[in-house]
Design brief:
Blueprint (H helix, E strand, L loop, with lengths): L2 E8 L1 H5 L3 H12 L2 E8 L3 H12 L5 H14 L12 E9 L1 H9 L12 H5 L1 E4 L5 E5 L2 E3 L3 H13 L20 E8 L10 H9 L5 E8 L3 H7 L1 H10 L1 H15 L6 H28 L18 E9 L1 H9 L12 H5 L8 E3 L3 H11 L8 H10 L2
Helix pairs in contact: 2-5, 2-8, 3-4, 3-7, 7-16, 9-12, 10-12, 11-12
Length: 389
């Protein structure tokens, strides 16, 4: 089987109804493919027209094709029939026979009797009158169905990635008395090592805050990025972890000598070791997030890491507080029941996700991970790299 790049484009209505996490869960578990890219779009009429032309070339059941083309015209444009934001989330997935596997995972729309074993079986609708006219149509997602056409579709996504896509804070409007914030969430590497539904499930949990997703990006953090991102912890760890250092020093000395060692000596040794211990714990986090050893001399600190993360921007009133409450305490054992970390966290480091603790922190972190203003799109690099092979 050939290594292929496929896509899933989640519709504006699916984003509005917070079905994003469920769709991602279904796609990942049913397809078994690797999620390698993500980007939000607010399609221009020019983009919709060109995508519509490419869609019309695909070999799709005539009734279904007409429904999809009409849906694009009515709901994907900025001035649409529902009067909603036309945010659409593009996911890129890669692996053997990816186009066919995505097609099977998404499934077809076969009316009210459709089974919920595919994306469209659960999140889509295709209901007609007895006269044959369309009563209700919601495809949930758009996908490429033919390898011959998908190359042009991927090229289109790359071309408009910056023009129509990126950070869409300006696209979502709020009441005048509301003061919206934008905060950053990162789904950590553990969520992508098991080929499970965890990434989508966590996104589904965050959707309960009522906030809007306004940015998305897949990450492979370099050592340099991870060091910058977690730099504040290096200073915090010096004093926060000192108590643990002291306890370990006291235990070692107690086992090593037959005489009692004074508290003054233990404290002095703990002071000598606290900086080295803080650096060690800091480097453990850098290694976990990047997959690269920060101690290794031969490592290129700017090279993309080997671990995968998913960064998302959420926007709305009190976004920082709402996301942090949904996330739960840093220590999963102390996190409130029903929070992300209580369900998906393992320990202080492998605790499911990261979320900015303030607007200022969100701004600093967003710049590091490439979700700030006009920073380059990862989608273009993934698509162009694939098409150049």
């Amino acid at each position: 089987m050939a290594d292929e790049l496929a896509y899933v484009l989640i519709t504006p209505y699916s984003l509005l109804k917070s079905r994003t996490g469920g769709i991602i869960s279904r796609v990942l578990t049913l397809s078994g493919l690797e999620l390698v890219g993500a980007r939000l779009y607010a399609p221009s009429d020019e983009f919709v027209d060109r995508y519509r032309d490419l869609l019309s070339r695909q070999d799709i059941q005539p009734e279904m094709k007409q429904g999809l083309l009409r849906y694009l015209d009515e709901y994907f444009r900025r001035d649409n029939a529902l009067g909603i934001t036309n945010r659409a989330l593009l996911l890129l997935l890669r692996g053997d026979d990816a186009v066919a596997r995505i097609k099977r995972s998404v499934g077809s729309l076969t009316g009210p009797q459709a089974q919920g074993d595919t994306v469209r079986g659960t999140y889509g609708d295709f209901i007609g009158y007895t006269t044959g006219e369309m009563k209700h149509f919601e495809p949930a997602v758009f996908v490429g169905t033919e390898s011959t056409v998908i190359t042009d579709e991927l090229s289109l996504f790359a071309k408009y990635a910056d023009r129509d896509g990126g950070i869409l804070e300006h696209v979502v409007s709020f009441d005048p008395d509301q003061n919206p914030e934008t905060t950053l969430v990162i789904l950590k590497p553990d969520n992508f090592r098991r080929g499970s539904s965890r990434p989508g499930n966590i996104i589904d949990m965050f959707s309960r805050t009522g906030l809007c997703i306004v940015g998305a990006r897949m990450l492979r953090m370099s050592i340099e990025q991870a060091e910058k991102f977690y730099a504040p912890l290096r200073t915090i760890f010096v004093e926060r972890l000192k108590t643990g250092v002291r306890a370990r020093v006291a235990e070692v000395l107690r086992n090593a000598f037959e005489f009692a060692v004074s508290d003054e000596t233990v404290n002095a040794l703990a002071d000598l070791l606290k900086d080295a211990n803080a650096l060690h714990e800091f480097n453990r986090i850098v290694n976990y997030m990047s997959g690269r050893d920060p101690y290794a001399v031969e490592e290129d600190k700017r090279a993309p890491g080997t671990e995968q993360c998913f960064a998302l921007l959420y926007r709305g009133p009190e976004a920082v507080r709402k996301i942090r409450e949904c996330l739960g305490s840093t220590n999963p054992r102390q996190a409130a029941p029903g929070t992300v970390r209580s369900v998906y966290g393992d320990d202080l480091m492998k605790n499911g996700a990261h979320a900015s603790d303030s607007i200022e922190s969100a701004e600093r972190e967003r710049k590091i991970v490439g979700l700030w203003d006009k920073q380059p799109s990862d989608i273009q690099e993934v698509i162009r790299g694939y098409l150049s092979q």
